[in-house]
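Progress report, Aim 2. The chain analyzed during this reporting quarter is listed below.
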Amino acid sequence: MANKPLFHYQNGSVVSNKHVFGRRRSSAASQRKPISMPLLCGMMLFCLGMLSLFTGQMASDLDRYSQRFMKQSLVNLDENNRGPIDIWESEYAKYFYGCSVRSDTFPDAISEQSPNGYLLIAASGGLNQQRTGISDAVVVARILNATLVVPELDHNSYWKDDSDFVNIFYVDWFISYLAKDVTVVRRVPDKFMRSMEKPPYTMRVPRKSPPEYYLDQVLPILKRRHVLQLTKFDYRLANNIDEDLQKLRCRSNFHALRFTEPIQALGQKLVKKMRQMANRFMAVHLRLEPDMLAFSGCYIGGGDKERYELREIRWETLPDIDAVGERRRGKCPLTPHEVGLMLRALGFENDAYIYVASGEIYGGEETLEPLKDLFPNLYTKEILANEDLKPFLPFSSCLATIDYIVCDESDVFVTNNNGNMAKILAGRRRYMGHKRTIRPNSKRLSPLLMQRDQMDWNTFAEKVKAVQRGFMGEPDEMRAGRGEFHEYPYSCICEKPASDIIAAGNNGGGDGDHHQSRQFKENEGLRKRSNEEEPVLGAKEDRRCIS
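Predicted structure tokens for the chain:
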């Protein structure tokens, strides 16, 4: 037992040994004695030495984790990164694969009879923000050894969508897939609820709380009250946690969360239509909703009319913002015209096919027109789905899932922002094979776009290519601790063995197929369990957005 990396509390909680470090405090009687100056200096030097040793070890650990999936790599990414970039796919993606299989030292979930209580989760924000909360909630339930109740979705935010978890996600699959990691139930048993003397305790934990916080502050309440609800649950778990827990995050996000059959079917239908028109296509996610522009203080060139309309939406209590300054500092999303200029500068031809994923765009078709001038083959879900989309129109979260599917399946994913959908999809596309994902380096690109008229096209294009290095979805962009884990799932990306890399080099054009074969083998445990535990589909009306 001493060699196991997981520690079992008597209360049933399961965490890493390093999360237990420092929890026990010792006390001793102290007597005041005069301290000589040499002794004081010696103590100070000793403390400084220990601090240096500790911070050095931290830096060493961080570097080790950041390089874990490229350790002793046969592929020199740094040297090759100076050459031209293939804009449609990464040359080095074939050397890496998603790896979230449970380790041998990660014990099965404790049986349903022994958990410490029921954990209720109220997610917060838009659908993709809630997705981060759901996958984190699975990990928190594991830390607390709690039975997780299927999370409650946010019905009160701007999106005003009353869809429940069961309307968007395949709930039976979610429960069965996670069975070995966490016990999940649809609801707290009625008999148990009737026996409670008090209603469920409700609390909100601080953002980025480490596992120790949940063990120290949340677990005692859960054990005392038996049913606990955590509200506004988004980004409430620390970014850097034990690697086995990180892999559980990946299993929850990338495997356990499946969309319902009607949503998945419509999304795949749109993907098929795009593929029928072109062998490969781009998906461009645009965030230009009126409220987002108003509260960010950004301006997209609509003149006095735009300034007046956005000012009417913006709260009077908010301070005035210099829109030009915000754009120059890279704080504003790119306009459709700027997205088009970036893509043309990177090398995409005007005959490329583009799927535009978006909610309401301020200015509508007029705002999109400059992008369409640069890329005439531009399509949206409204154009492609037509009648099929009508049942989903009242449900903004369901519409967002359809965009999510098409963006996920696209050959190239492009975004004009760094919002939750951009982050979630960037992480998923890394995990699924480092599919080309382009996000604007806004701090450097925005000033360059503002100076576009001061240089010829070739100069502008070369500058854009230079600025965008490191923002194209290449494997070497992965760094432990960089951004959100959902965006950079470094613990769940592995390099193929040296023998496979050598074989791939010898096989030439067969690399892609070989990579897929290798990834299948590494995830065989996941896939085998998936096939064995494929649940019986629930009632059809329980798996739709429409009621």
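The chain is about 45% helix and 10% strand. The longest strand covers residues 227-233. These observations will guide the mutagenesis work planned for the next reporting period.
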